[in-house]
Design brief:
- This protein has 264 residues and is of the alpha/beta class.
- It has three domains: 4-99, Elongation Factor Tu (Ef-tu), domain 3 (Beta Barrel); 103-221, Nucleotide-binding domain of ferredoxin-NADP reductase (FNR) module (Rossmann fold); 222-264, Dihydroorotate dehydrogenase B (pyrk subunit), domain 3, CATH 2.10.240.
- Helices cover 23% and strands 32% of the residues.
- It has helices at residues 28-33, 79-85, 120-132, 146-155, 179-187, 201-211, 250-253; strands at residues 4-17, 20-26, 39-43, 56-59, 62-64, 69-75, 92-99, 111-116, 138-143, 164-167, 174-175, 194-198, 217-221, 237-239, 247-249, 256-258.
- The strands form three sheets. The chain has a seven-stranded antiparallel beta sheet with strand order 4-3-7-1-2-6-5. It has a seven-stranded mixed beta sheet with strand order 11-10-9-8-12-13-16, with helices on both faces. A two-stranded antiparallel sheet has the order 14-15.
- Strand 12, helix 6 and strand 13 form a beta-alpha-beta unit.
- The model has no long low-confidence stretch (mean pLDDT 94).
- The structure holds flavin-adenine dinucleotide and FE2/S2 (inorganic) cluster (FES).
């Protein structure tokens, strides 16, 4: 397993939606080894080398092997991402990764990918991976508004015709939530299908409720606050499904889990 922990240079940084940015980082070794569903921890610093102290986790949205780059999408939600949005191309940032266990890559039967909000990032990586391998998948991506999706899809070179899009305000694709088209897909599939999903917790729960007993496997990518990203601080504990008081650690056991194993 390759784990990079060093300063890497920002090559590309642009705003692609309201408070949403795409960041391209020169990290040839991460690009070479990263798998869909894995993430990186990024150190963002303000005026002091210790502020904010903790690195922030971000999913890898895709890699470019020719340029030796990885790309992430992020939304500005707090101090770390606000500071990150001010970094200019040419600046170095601390990068640790690739981390975690990603999505299953070899699956039999029909495959449905579901991404909501910034959860589209690892789904885009997975979708590109599947297409590059010559396989196919139905990809459903949702957001609140079209602005949040259009720029991200353009930046990642995903054609609007290739994916099913839903927006809550109806400004792009079908009006509503990702569960609308997912329910229709589930009406027409056999039981050997796989769903792979990433998005807000309520979305994952709704996907799980819909697909219950209808698919062979549902994989979900979970989020939590992360301090270390490598299984040392135990800050990302998440309850396992069942009566026992057992926990998984999202950074090292996940972030991708079989939905039957964890509480959603
Ligand atoms: C495995 C993993 C992959 C991720 N991938 C992405 C990605 O591709 N793009 C992206 O934009 N974000 C992603 N995130 C979330 C991202 O790490 C947080 O948005 C970021 O750390 C916020 O940092 P901040 O300093 O700006 O915000 P903070 O000041 O730390 O927090 C600001 C607000 O955001 C909320 N918040 C912070 N972190 C999280 C979190 N992990 N989950 C839910 N709410 C949170 C806080 O409650 C607070 O309200 C991912 C998180 C994980 C664990
Ligand atoms: S973030 Fe430290 S153990 Fe998971």
């Amino acid at each position: 397993m390759v784990l990079v922990d060093r300063k890497c240079k920002i090559i590309h940084h642009s705003q692609v939606g309201p408070e949403v940015y795409v960041l391209g980082i020169d990290a040839v070794d991460v690009a070479k080894h990263a798998l869909p569903g894995q993430f990186v921890m990024i150190g963002v610093r303000g005026k002091s080398a210790f502020d904010p102290l903790l690195r922030r986790p971000f999913s890898i949205a895709w890699t470019d092997h020719v340029k030796g780059m990885i790309f992430i999408f992020y939304r500005v939600v707090g101090r770390g991402t606000r500071l990150l949005s001010e970094y200019m191309p040419g600046t170095g940032l601390e990068l640790l990764g690739p981390l975690g266990r990603g999505f299953s890559l070899e699956v039999s039967g029909r495959r449905i990918l579901v991404g909501g909000g910034l959860g589209i990032a690892p789904i885009i990586f997975l979708y590109k991976w599947i297409k590059a391998s010559g396989a196919s998948a139905t990809c459903i991506l949702g957001a609140r508004t079209g602005d949040e999706l259009l720029g991200a899809l353009k930046a990642s070179d995903i054609s609007l015709e290739d994916v099913i899009i839903t927006t809550e305000d109806g400004s792009l694709g079908k009006k509503g939530l990702v569960t609308g088209p997912l329910a229709k897909c589930l009406d027409h599939i056999g039981g050997d299908a796989t769903i792979q999903a990433c998005g807000p917790a309520p979305m994952l729960k709704a996907v799980s409720n819909l697909s219950n007993h209808k698919v062979r496997l549902l994989e979900v990518s979970l989020e939590s606050y992360m301090a270390c990203g490598i299984g040392l601080c135990l800050g990302c504990a998440h309850k396992k499904r069942g009566d026992s008081e057992e926990y998984v650690h999202i950074c090292k056991d996940g972030p991708v889990f079989d939905a039957r194993d964890v509480v959603l």
